[in-house]
Design a protein that fits this description.
Elements: E1 7-10, H1 17-27, E2 30-34, H2 48-62, E3 63-64, E4 68-73, E5 79-84, E6 92-93, E7 96-101, E8 104-107, H3 110-120, H4 138-148, H5 155-160, E9 164-165, E10 169-170, H6 172-177, E11 186-191, E12 198-204, H7 209-224, E13 225-230, E14 233-238, H8 242-255, E15 264-268, E16 272-278, H9 287-292, H10 301-309, H11 319-326, E17 335-338, E18 342-348, H12 358-369, H13 375-378, H14 386-398, E19 403-405, E20 412-414
Helix pairs in contact: 7-8, 8-11
Length: 415
């Protein structure tokens, strides 16, 4: 048994366990087992009933507000403390709030603390009153009239879209959709053969994100689409599927964390586009659930609703699945990198006839016949050693050809 993001071992009782109580109360149920060392060896606790009372008193005296938990003394004289995610976030220990980062417990930063406070109030950052109230909405009005045939655009329209109310005026979502948007926008860089060569730099700011969306697509079309004349016909060629770029761009705009003072970055290369959006996954969704489209949690539901009404996105969280679908016949596939504060989508050139190295081609043929293979399962079919197989698979992962699932001995590889 090993420690995880939701399981911590403590060989003895020290004050540090209270940080983890704060973390589990803030971000999700978890357990702390006392009487087990860091390697998972059972040591037990002397006088466990007395220690159970001591744990209870420490929590009641040190964590505010009062968290929900239960304590059980086990037959092997270990003690299991189960902490439940609370509704009155943030939960503080010594005036600080904590979260789990893999198997470690760390203090949350100012931005994260703000999110916890908003979550406890059942609010999103986009719902807060905008610091700027002299907003104009000419571009939003134009798009609404064009796409959903509204007869007029006024404050009632903004109220219907949850962008305005009489008490608080315009909210942050309204600011973001306004003609004079004051939030960070999109930074587009078109690179040459190396990252040291920047052929063009475009910064989209102080305009509605709807206009940012359109201008970014125009830039994409300039570099990744062209017409090919075949006899009497003109055929549009897309080096990177437009639908995939639209979905990735829309996801970046409507799901980013707008409280982070950072731009969306779009890096355009000869062989790929990288779209990096500030803010990791919303609380309550895992990377696996995100990639498989199993759960749709909208960080900015007001902005998402406007994009949905304009026909830019679906409301059912199918964006990632739609991106993957556009690469169904391509050897290279999209890559999704998820970290604490960033989601990056890499869209490679759509290539049905990618010229792989001979050794890569051997692995590709093996994996095309049997999905989800471990290195041990691959080894009997290849003419080279284990270290080279690992090296090739890692390179193929970086190129978007192979996906790696799991870790350690449970690691599997598939196309």
């Amino acid at each position: 048994m090993n420690e995880t993001a939701t399981l911590e071992f403590k060989e003895s009782i020290t004050k540090t366990f209270l940080k983890t109580v704060s973390a589990f109360s803030n971000y999700g149920d978890g357990q702390i087992i006392f009487g087990i060392d860091d390697d998972g060896n059972i040591k037990g606790i002397e006088n466990p009933e007395d220690v159970r009372i001591d744990i209870e008193n420490r929590i009641n005296d040190s964590i505010t507000p009062q968290p929900k938990y239960s304590i059980t003394v086990n037959k092997n004289t270990t003690i299991t403390l189960t902490v439940f995610e609370g509704n009155n976030k943030p939960y503080f220990y010594n005036s600080k709030a904590y979260k789990r980062n893999d198997t470690a417990t760390i203090e949350v930063d100012t931005f994260e603390l703000t999110r916890l406070i908003l979550e406890s109030k059942k609010m999103n950052y986009e719902e807060l009153s905008s610091e700027s109230q002299g907003l104009e909405f000419n571009y939003l009005a134009e798009k609404l009239i064009q796409h959903i045939q509204i007869e007029s655009f006024n404050n009632d329209t903004l109220k219907t879209l949850n962008l305005f109310n009489e008490k608080n005026g315009y909210n942050n979502a309204a600011n973001i959709l306004s003609d004079n948007n004051t939030f960070p926008g999109i930074d587009i860089a078109i690179f040459g053969d190396t990252i040291n060569i920047i052929k063009k730099r475009i910064i989209l700011e102080n305009i509605s994100i709807l206009k940012m969306y359109e201008k970014a697509i125009e830039t994409y079309k300039d570099y990744y689409q062209y017409e090919e004349i075949n006899g009497s016909y003109r055929n549009k060629v897309e080096l990177i599927p437009e639908e995939a770029f639209r979905e990735a761009l829309a996801n970046a705009l409507i799901h980013r964390s707008w409280d982070l003072n950072a731009r969306i970055r779009i890096s355009m290369f000869n062989d790929k586009i990288e779209i990096s959006s500030p803010g990791g996954l919303p609380n309550g969704i895992t990377k696996d659930e995100y990639l498989k489209g199993m759960i749709s949690l909208r960080r900015n539901p007001i902005i998402s609703n406007v994009f949905y009404r304009l026909g830019i996105v679906e409301i059912f969280g199918t964006g990632i699945l739609r991106i993957n679908q556009t690469y169904e016949n391509s050897i290279k596939k999209p890559i999704f990198n998820v970290s604490t504060n960033t989601i990056q989508i890499i869209l490679p050139i759509h290539d049905k006839n990618y010229d792989m190295e001979q050794d890569q081609a051997i692995l590709y043929e093996i994996l095309s016949k049997t999905q989800n293979m471990s290195i041990s399962e691959i080894m009997p079919y290849v003419p080279f050693g284990r270290s080279k197989v690992k090296e090739l698979l890692k390179k193929m992962e970086n190129e978007g050809i192979v996906k790696i699932v799991g870790n350690g001995k449970a690691t599997k590889y598939h196309l």
